[in-house]
């Protein structure tokens, strides 16, 4: 009787081990899903910024997954400097290379200038600062967006630079003049890149490589 009892205990132990082994992957999966949910819920927003996803910009404070775009280090550098725009060679645009308009009812004191000369993002920002004592334009409502799209359509280019950029691994969108992010008009698929351009047809915004040469709009 001792031998059958020993075999019975051995079989019971083996069955219990197999049961635990089958449950383990399920438990691991539950824990992984819980960790992922906590990561998504815990990603906060700073004032004046919003997180960019592949479907567009979400409102301030909303917790969403960051964009899957992989922006390279070269594009990060191009956002801050333009190697072709050396100080000794710097020149302001000629009058014939620009179109200037005044703001509408939404901002009667605003002035905008479209510069036809194509520059990288950093070079365009420098022109706005040095020549017009302003900055690349920020957009805060649909009326201004439509007005600037109409202006941009005179450039004979697909896109023009505006003053938006993407910062950090969390893909936070900001205006370089420091103004609040209170309006967005992203294309359904905004693309990749750390700088932002305005489409001359439709007026949507797209992420664009900062080293690309485009016309641009300054506000002052």
What does this structure look like?
The chain has 220 residues and is of the alpha+beta class. The protein folds into two domains: 1-42; 50-219, Mannose-Binding Protein A, subunit A (Mannose-Binding Protein A, Chain A, Roll), CATH 3.10.100.10. 32% of the residues lie in helices and 23% in strands. It contains four helices and ten strands; from the N terminus they run αββαββαβαβββββ. It has a six-stranded antiparallel β-sheet, covered by helices on one side. Strands 3-4-10-5 form a four-stranded antiparallel β-sheet, with helices on both faces. It is globular, with a radius of gyration of 27 Å. The N and C termini lie far apart (99 Å). Mean pLDDT is 74; it is low at 15-67. Residues 110-219 form the C-type lectin domain. This is C-type lectin domain-containing protein. Residues 1-17 form the signal peptide. Residues 29-69 are annotated as: Disordered. InterPro entries: C-type_lectin-like, C-type_lectin-like/link_sf, C-type_lectin/snaclec_domain, C-type_lectin_CS, CTDL_fold, Eosinophil_major_basic.
Short characterization:
The chain is of the alpha+beta class and 220 residues long. It has helices spanning 2-41, 73-80, 121-132, 142-152; strands at 50-53, 56-57, 98-102, 111-119, 135-136, 159-167, 172-175, 195-199, 205-208, 214-219.
């Amino acid at each position: 009787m001792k031998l059958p009892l020993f075999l019975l205990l051995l079989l019971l132990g083996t069955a219990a081990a197999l049961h635990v082994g089958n449950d383990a992957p399920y438990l691991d999966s539950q824990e992984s899903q819980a960790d992922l949910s906590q990561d998504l819920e815990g990603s906060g927003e700073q004032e004046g910024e919003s997180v960019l996803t592949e479907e567009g910009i979400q409102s301030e404070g909303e917790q969403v997954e960051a964009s899957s775009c992989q922006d390279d280090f070269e594009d990060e550098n191009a956002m801050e400097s333009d190697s072709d725009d050396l100080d000794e060679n710097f020149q302001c645009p000629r009058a014939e290379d620009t179109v200037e308009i005044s703001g509408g009812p939404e901002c009667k004191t605003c002035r905008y200038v479209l510069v036809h000369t194509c520059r990288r993002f950093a070079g365009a920002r420098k022109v706005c600062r040095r020549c017009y004592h302003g900055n690349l334009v920020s957009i805060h409502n649909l009326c201004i967006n439509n007005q600037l799209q109409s202006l941009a359509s005179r450039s004979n280019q697909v896109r023009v630079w505006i003053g938006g950029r993407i910062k950090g691994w969390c893909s936070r969108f900001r205006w370089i003049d420091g103004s609040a992010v209170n309006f967005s008009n992203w294309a359904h698929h905004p693309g990749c890149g750390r700088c932002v351009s305005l489409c001359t047809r439709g007026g949507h915004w797209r992420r664009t490589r900062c080293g690309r040469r485009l016309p641009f709009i300054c506000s002052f």
